[in-house]
Design goal:
Pfam families: Abhydrolase_3. The chain contains nine helices and eight strands. The protein is an alpha/beta fold. The chain has a single domain, classed as Alpha/Beta hydrolase fold, catalytic domain (Rossmann fold).
Length: 324
Amino acid sequence: MTGLRSDPQRESPVLTDGARAVLALADPTAPPFETGTPQAARAAYDAGRPAVQGERAAVAAVRDLVIEDGIGALPARLYRGHGAPASGAPALLYLHGGGWVLGGLDSHDEVCRAFADMAGAVVLCPDYRLAPEHRFPAAVEDGRRALAWLRKRAGEFGVDPARIAVGGDSAGGNLATVTALAARGDDAPPLTAQLLFYPNTDAAQDSDSFRLFASGYGLTAATMRWFRDLTIRDAADLADWRFSPLKSADLTGAPPAYVAIAEADILADEGIAYARRLEAAGVPTVFERWPGLIHGFVSMGRHIPQSREAIAAAVAAWKRFEAR
């Protein structure tokens, strides 16, 4: 695994032009998310998305559906990429970011489309329940439900149940890691990969990157703490491995992992720490540190060309894992 060397310039990273362009879009008079309500934060987040999202790939097919599993209805969106075979296709369960509080089927539509086309795959994105209306472990349970449903319906969607991976970004990366760890005991073919972009892995939020990039780089430490505190039921949840997968006692047998972090991101250190633990547990791991970039860059394709490059790198790693 490469990219974990110390960087003497870490306290003053040189941001890319694209990252600076995204940061310049922020309204300095807008109140921080944490000073208002979750509903206001969602409205602001949704209103700002079009200014940063890139073009949406014209996948072969896309449709909205509902996951019905006897527990409750869970909206979802299914994508079929160009080049995906009619049967035996690889599939990706993608769990969107948004601090467990924001986001939905539209917020990461461009990411899911890019994965579907680049991988020639079927992508399922569930609209998992959000906090604070549905606190931990609701989103974790929905990730598990979505995976079980995809496995059960694999034949209907032309998916090979032995070629399913999970992925996600930020809070969705957290959910993807937890889904991957929990799936180790399933009576089903093992997941082929976990594709993680700047994942939340440690609810303690006390790393050096939290201090270094606490403000001025998009996602702030104050906002991330607000997200966390809206999601947990009580302080005991902070130590639960399903919320802090870095605290899992054993990562042995986890699916092969692609882990990407942004250089100037409060979550950088916990992503690095998780990649190191996976490698130490003998899990095939590809780690990439994206210099000059900020949290959320994979969803900022309008300004940051590396968003597509990172998805392509994740797809390439996924294919290598499958070929092992």
